[in-house]
Amino acid sequence: MPKKLKTSLEAKKNRLRRRFVNGIGELIGAIGLLVSIALLCFLFIYAYSYALSTPYFEIRETAVRGLKELTEKDILTLASVPPRQNLLAVNTDSLVKKISANPWVKNIYVGRELPGRLVLEVRERIPVAMVKQASNFYLMDNEGFVFKKVGKSDEVDLPILTGAGSMKKEKSKLLLSALDLLKTISTSGRYGYLGAVSEVNVDDEFGISLLTDAGLYLKMGMDDYENKLQQLDVVMIDLEKRGMKKGYICADLRNVSKITIQRKNASGKTESGKKGKQYRT
Question: How many other β-carbons are positioned within 10 Å of the β-carbon of residue 176?
């Protein structure tokens, strides 16, 4: 056999031997990796099962936070967490669903504080008005969501929302503006002279109008409400200086550059000025 051919055959044998040895090594490595993964999975399952059964993670305290209208008892009754429940075994989705069944609950967060505290963070709906549907009144929150029928035990002192715009299922921009206006008046502290708003009317053609317990009827129109209230503040100061702030006052603020004021006495008759006093700004 020629020496060159013999050398070539030996080289091929060596390559095949190296490939075989490398293949065996890779196979052993892959088997070792699979065994390691299986062992880790077994240890994880064992540790998890042990954690679910050990008394160390039993719920010893349930903290309920964020309540105003509801009580802690209300939430715990809805949650109905079994005694000696393991904290890690709590089904948070189920808890959220059960607690959200209460109409006052807007959002609920379920958290765990190891080793044994369950945390229920509740965000309640904030009612800003009442709407009448059929023969009953319902509470509406600041997002225009009607969420609860007003019962005999409910102590509410909220303005009544009227008008075709308040009854639509689809929340109109005007309705949301009316709710924002109510929030502004009640929380800013700048409009105490208005008194408490007793009724809000939402009309797609004429806009928003307010009736307050201070004897004010305000035609607010479609927009620019805060600026209109600021201009009205100036007008009311002027009326007070003139001694003309008594009785019922109708303020047309739809055109902020020409505010019209009409005063009525207790009997409903318009006083001084057939068309009312006009203020230009």
Answer: 14
